[in-house]
Amino acid sequence: MTDKETNTNSKFNVEGRVWINSENCSFTGQGKIELIEKIKELGSLRKAAAEMKMSYRQAWQNINKMNNLSEKPLVILNRGGKNGGIAIVTEEADNVIVAYNKLKTAFDIFIKQQSEILNL
Fold first, then answer.
1. How many Cα neighbours within 13 Å face the side chain of 2?
2. Domain holding 75: CATH number?
3. pLDDT digit string (tens) for 47-83?
4. Among candidates 12, 84, 100, which has minimal Cα distance to 43?
5. Is 3 within a domain?
6. Is 59 in contact with 50 (CB distance < 8 Å)?
7. pLDDT of the residue at 87
8. Buried-state track 32-49, b at ≥16 Cβ within 10 A, e below 16
9. pTM (two decimals)
10. 98, exposed or middle or buried, with CB in 10 Å at 0-12, 13-18, 19+?
């Protein structure tokens, strides 16, 4: 049996993920976008990190890195006391989310088209 005969029932898929990089480092990707969306939903970095099963430190580092790479802050963190601080997602972050989602949609269409070509 040849390789072609073996694979006649196989379906191949092209896969990939989208990252936006700046100066040879990751600015944002799906995980960081989800983190910003959770912060917006919950109003707290700590709560967003917990819901995503991420350490507070890792979440803070991700937000801090994006804020430092962006011209304007994406998330403003206000330290809190007994009940914790609040986190404010800025309009700049909303713009990044929209741009990322448009790029991801276009990328997903491209990936689907390439999978279809591969399986002709």
1. 3
2. 1.10.10.10
3. 999 999 999 999 999 999 999 999 999 999 988 766 6
4. 84
5. no
6. no
7. 94
8. bbebbebbbebebbbbbb
9. 0.83
10. exposed
Q: Which residues are 21's β-sheet partners?
A: 26
Is there a domain that residue 51 lies in? yes
Residues in the chain: 120
CB 63 within 8 A of CB 48: no
Q: Which helix (H) or strand (E) holds 80?
A: strand 75-81
| DSSP helix/strand/coil, 53 | coil
Three-state secondary-structure class, residue 73: coil
Query: What tokens does 93 get?
Result: 């972050």
First to last CA, the chain: 21
